[in-house]
From TrEMBL:
A GO term from the CC aspect: centrosome
PANTHER family in the record: RILP-LIKE PROTEIN 2, ZINC FINGER PROTEIN DZIP1
Compartments where found: Cell projection, Cilium; Cytoplasm, Cytoskeleton, Microtubule organizing center, Centrosome; Cytoplasm, Cytosol
Species of the source: Nyctibius grandis
Classification of source organism: Eukaryota, Metazoa, Chordata, Craniata, Vertebrata
Compositionally biased residues, Basic and acidic residues: 179-192
Descriptive protein name: RILP-like protein 2
Region annotated Disordered, chain positions: 164-192
Keywords for this protein: Cell projection, Cilium, Coiled coil, Cytoplasm, Cytoskeleton, Protein transport, Transport
GO molecular-function term, one example from the UniProt record: small GTPase binding
Occurrences of domain RH2 (ranges): 121-190
Annotated ranges, domain RH1: 10-103
InterPro entries, per database record: DZIP_RILPL (IPR051241), RH1 (IPR034743), RH2 (IPR034744), RILP_dimer (IPR021563)
Main location: other
Length: 192
């Protein structure tokens, strides 16, 4: 069984790998090799050779652990340096903020930042838009009234009523100075 494992590379091959290429399976293989060597120590006749192999393998495992620890310490130190650099940069940006734009820091939840170069930016306040829409709606309503009145003029409904109303007014006022004024009103209405 040992010969088959050694021909395939077996668990001993895990000891030859770089510590950074080890997998969980390799760790179990190393454990198996060390355990087997410990069993051979108690077996008897080949104790010196088994002891030398075990010593070599334990030293190799310790070297791997040292490499992993020093690599993780290096990575940890690099991360600390990066964190400190980012903190300094953040503090510098915070320090520049009040001098560059004091208004930005005082922005509250009801404030909005607008890019003046944006062609689609809002140009009116909400109240101004409401006022414009209300005025538009009033003008639309007036237009509808005028259109209905014009339609009535075209169909002749209003002119008959107006003629009757004018006659009643003439009778009531005694026909004083209404002829000239009435003709001007008729001319204006015809223009409309």
């Amino acid at each position: 069984e040992e010969l088959e494992e050694e021909e395939d590379g077996g668990p001993e091959r895990a000891l030859e790998k770089s510590p950074f290429q080890l997998t969980a399976g390799d760790v179990y293989d190393i454990s198996s090799v060390v355990g087997r060597d410990l069993l051979q120590l108690s077996a008897g006749p080949q104790v010196p050779a088994a002891l030398a192999r075990l010593q070599f393998r334990i030293v190799r495992v310790l070297e791997m652990l040292e490499a992993l620890v020093s690599e993780s310490s290096l990575a940890e130190e690099q991360l600390r340096m990066e964190r400190d650099s980012l903190r300094r940069e953040l503090e510098a940006l915070r320090g520049e903020g009040p001098r560059g734009s004091a208004q930005q820091l005082s922005l509250g939840p009801d404030k909005m930042v607008i890019d003046l170069t944006d062609p689609n930016r809002p140009r009116f306040t909400l109240q101004e838009l409401r006022d414009v829409l209300q005025e538009r709606n009033q003008l639309k309503a007036q237009l509808l009234v005028v259109q209905e009145e014009l339609q009535c003029y075209k169909s002749g409904i209003i002119s008959q009523r107006k003629d009757q109303t004018e006659e009643l007014q003439k009778v009531a006022s005694g026909r004083s100075s209404g002829t000239r004024k009435d003709s001007e009103e008729k001319t204006i209405i015809k223009r409309l």
